[in-house]
Every structure is written in structure tokens, then in C-alpha cells.
């Protein structure tokens, strides 16, 4: 079955042309299959490829080619017609299937997970994210290494998969490199934990944006902090987390935009990016952003993916479900979706980050769920020492009012630790 074929004359040739291939399971839902192929197209676009054709087959997996032999020959004919740079399979391939397909079609073959790794490698900007990408790539290659070397020896083709010369020590070399990278990442993880603890001590609450890719997290981030972080209608725009300070009704907080997730993300990718996700795991509040314009069943699956990834790792974080892109949904339709998804969407808030709709309501919900601060009244000496404590209180909490007389009477709000320290300092000054 050809899918969404494009004419050669219309497309022309490009150095980045690719053909997409999807094998669907007999009896599976056509709408789900179309959605998954559309997501693969978005991923290819995010990687800078131009999709010239797609091939879909409903078939049980074939051991040699993953798709049937006849369909593989049809694919080879398409390659001869379009001369693409690569063929990208939606389904995971064994190294034997990659080898057989590349032999038959005379074209490089990758699957969806290799495509995601390519995107991650392009977007990684920090030393930590570059290490994470390299680790994910090595963990993907490791179980295939022995078979790959066996195939290369069998056929004596040292250039296959761009590997260059091969040796029996290839698998051992991969294991050594994985061990080295994990040690380096442990150092960066400890550094991140220390930084987060310091932020809490400085009076900052921690808020993270999380959710499915392309839900509009970066647009919401930009709107809340009034900055221009890279935001495009493209998957995996955000890879390295970005953090900025915001003020929520007088409360200081740090808002972090994190990498999004896709359906069927393999565990080796999730594990490799765990240190990136720790900004979410240690948050006080998580804004779980979903695209409200998606059908209800699609939102349900995306919420389930996000919950599977995050909920087992969270520690006392409050979850707020942000239904974004409300400007694309008819009135009444979104309320029906939220009601149908009630059990998966705690603290729902409807917004349009692009049109700045619903942001005040979102900030109110965030403020009501920030870690509790105590409101207290304290009497400080009207002296240089007392003014110094007042100045410190203004930095660490919220000072609602001050009355100056023989003493300075302060109505303030702050964390327990700040309140207790201010009272202790005041007592020490009075006792001196």
C-alpha cells in the first residue's frame, strides 16, 4: 500500500531526501497508524530531512526484511526512482534486517530510534547533554555489536554502517566507553543536586514544564518569563533544560523548560536522559502541558506516556495539567475533553500561551500550590541592626507592611526557616 505518494517532478531531488516505511500490525486501528506515521514525518522534518515518499504495509514481521519480500523489492524500486539519502523505518529493526535491506536497496537504513538519536545529537549544546546523547547511542549499539561484527566478517565489508574497519574488540570498546561516560555523568548529577538544594535555601520554589513533545511547552515558558527561548512547531525543540526566574504573586520561583517525550520512547533513551529529567523529579510543582486541540483519545495516550515516565520518580510534587492551544478548540469541546480525562488530569487549567489566554488563572493555581509560607508579625529594633534584618526579610520573603516607631513592626510571610532565623536574630539584638 503506497501512502501519500509525492510525484518526483514535484519534489525534485535533494541531498536530504528520505523515504519512510511503516509496518502495521494486522487488526490495529488505522487512525493510530496514521498518527504514528505523521509523528515520524515530524521527526524527520525536525532532523532536517525531506520526505519524498512513504511506504506502509500491514504484515506480520518478516525475519529477513521486517516487511515482506515483495514489499522490500517495491521499496528497492522506490529507492531507484528517488535516490534518497536514507530509508527510515517506524518500527525497530534488527541488525540483520538493516543489513539485508541495505544490501537489497543499496541505501542506508535507520529506524525511528536512530532518527531520534540524530536529532538529540544535533540539539545537544551542553557538555552534559552531549554525554547523554553519546551514552544513549552506545547503549543502542551495544546489543547489536556482536552481530554486526559477525555480518561484516561474513561478507568482508568493512565500510558497512559507516563503521570503518572492524575488530573483535568492538563490543569491549563500547562497554568501556559506556562505563567512562556513566562516571562522568555521575559528577554532573551531583552538581545538579547541589544546585537545586541551594536554590531551595535561597527561597526559590521550583516549577517545571513537562509533557509530550510539541505541546507548546516552550511557548508557554516564553510567555510566563517574557523571554524568547527557541520555540518552533517542531518536535524536540528543547533538549537541554532552560531555567529562568519568575515572580508568582510576590513569590520567587525558578521555571524550567524540559525535553518532551514521544510515544514508545525506549527505556535506554529515558535512562540516558535521566539527569536532564531530574529538574522535573525535584520540582515543587510540575506543569504537565498537553495540546488541547488533539482528539481526546490522543490526549489520553500522551498523558499516560507522561505519567508513566514521571510519576514513579516524583517526590511530593504537585501536578497541574495545562490544556494549551485552547484557541484552536471550539467552545464547550474542551470542557467535554477535560471531563472525559478527569482521572488523568489533576488541577486542570485551560490556556493559550500563544494568545496569552488563561495565564492569570494559571498563575493563581500555581500560587495556591506553592510550598506553604508562614505569615507572621515581628518587632525589630529601630536601629542599623534591625534595618539589616528587615532588608534580609525583604530578600527572603514577602514584607506586607512596616510600622516605624520605637520599634519596627513588620508583617511578613516566609518559609519556617526564614521566620525562625529572623526571630532569633531579633532576640539576640534585644539581649545584647
Question: Could you characterize the architecture of this molecule?
Answer:
This protein is of the alpha/beta class. The protein has helices spanning 8-11, 30-46, 69-82, 95-105, 112-123, 127-155, 170-201, 217-225, 267-272, 274-281, 296-310, 333-340, 359-369, 384-396, 416-431; strands spanning 2-3, 17-24, 50-58, 86-89, 108-111, 205-211, 242-248, 251-257, 285-291, 318-324, 349-350, 374-381, 398-404, 407-414. The strands form three sheets. It has a six-stranded mixed beta sheet, with helices on both faces. Helix 2 packs parallel to helix 5 and helix 5 (112-123) packs across helix 6 (127-155). The termini are far apart.
Strand content: 15-25%
Structural class: alpha/beta
Detail the poorly predicted runs.
1-11, 158-165
Intertermini distance: 88 Å
Gross morphology is elongated
DSSP strand tally: 14
Main sheet record? 6 strands, mixed
How many helical elements?
15
The residue-averaged pLDDT reads 81
Helical fraction: 40-55%
From N to C, what is the helix and strand string?
EHEHEHEHEHHHEHEEHHEHEHEHEHEEH
Calculate Rg over CA atoms: 27 Å
What's the arrangement of strands in the largest beta sheet? 7-8-6-9-10-11
Amino acid at each position: 500500500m503506497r501512502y501519500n505518494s509525492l510525484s518526483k517532478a514535484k519534489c525534485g531531488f535533494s541531498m536530504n531526501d528520505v523515504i519512510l516505511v511503516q509496518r502495521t500490525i494486522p487488526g490495529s486501528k488505522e487512525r493510530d497508524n496514521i498518527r504514528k506515521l505523521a509523528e515520524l514525518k515530524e521527526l524527520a522534518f525536525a532532523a532536517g530531512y525531506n520526505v519524498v515518499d512513504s511506504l506502509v504495509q500491514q504484515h506480520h514481521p518478516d525475519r529477513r526484511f521486517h516487511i515482506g519480500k515483495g514489499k522490500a523489492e517495491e521499496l528497492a524500486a522506490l529507492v531507484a526512482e528517488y535516490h534518497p539519502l536514507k530509508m527510515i523505518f517506524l518500527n525497530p529493526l534488527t541488525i540483520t534486517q538493516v543489513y539485508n535491506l541495505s544490501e537489497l536497496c543499496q541505501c542506508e537504513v535507520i529506524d525511528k530510534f536512530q532518527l531520534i538519536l540524530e536529532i538529540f545529537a544535533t540539539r545537544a549544546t551542553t557538555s552534559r547533554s552531549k554525554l547523554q546523547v553519546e551514552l544513549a547511542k552506545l547503549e543502542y549499539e551495544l546489543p547489536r555489536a556482536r552481530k554486526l561484527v559477525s555480518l561484516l566478517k561474513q561478507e568482508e565489508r568493512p565500510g558497512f554502517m559507516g563503521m570503518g574497519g572492524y575488530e573483535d574488540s568492538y563490543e569491549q570498546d563500547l562497554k568501556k566507553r559506556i562505563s567512562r561516560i556513566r562516571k562522568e555523568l555521575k559528577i554532573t548529577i551531583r552538581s545538579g543536586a547541589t544546585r537545586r538544594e541551594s536554590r531551595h535555601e535561597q527561597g526559590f520554589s521550583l516549577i517545571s514544564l513537562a509533557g509530550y513533545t510539541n505541546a507548546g511547552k516552550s511557548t508557554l515558558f516564553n510567555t510566563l518569563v517574557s523571554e524568547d527561548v527557541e520555540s518552533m512547531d517542531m518536535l524536540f525543540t528543547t533538549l537541554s533544560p532552560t531555567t529562568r526566574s519568575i515572580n508568582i504573586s510576590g513569590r520567587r520561583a525558578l521555571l524550567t523548560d524540559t525535553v518532551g517525550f514521544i510515544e514508545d520512547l525506549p527505556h535506554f533513551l529515558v535512562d540516558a536522559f535521566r539527569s536532564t529529567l531530574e529538574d522535573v523529579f525535584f520540582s515543587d510543582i510540575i506543569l504537565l502541558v498537553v495540546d488541547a486541540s488533539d482528539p481526546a483519545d490522543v490526549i489520553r495516550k500522551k498523558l499516560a506516556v507522561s505519567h508513566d515516565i514521571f510519576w514513579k520518580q516524583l517526590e511530593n510534587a504537585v501536578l497541574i495539567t495545562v490544556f494549551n492551544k485552547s484557541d484552536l478548540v471550539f467552545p464547550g469541546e474542551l470542557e467535554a475533553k477535560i471531563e472525559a480525562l478527569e482521572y488523568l488530569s489533576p488541577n486542570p487549567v485551560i490556556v493559550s500561551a500563544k494568545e496569552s489566554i488563561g495565564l492569570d488563572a494559571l498563575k493563581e493555581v500555581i500560587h495556591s500550590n506553592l510550598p506553604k509560607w508562614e505569615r507572621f508579625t515581628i518587632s525589630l529594633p529601630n536601629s542599623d541592626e534591625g534595618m539589616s534584618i528587615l532588608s534580609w526579610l525583604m530578600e527572603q520573603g514577602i514584607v506586607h507592611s512596616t510600622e516605624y516607631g520605637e520599634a519596627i513592626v513588620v508583617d511578613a510571610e516566609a518559609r519556617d526557616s526564614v521566620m525562625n532565623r529572623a526571630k532569633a536574630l531579633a532576640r539576640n539584638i534585644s539581649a545584647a
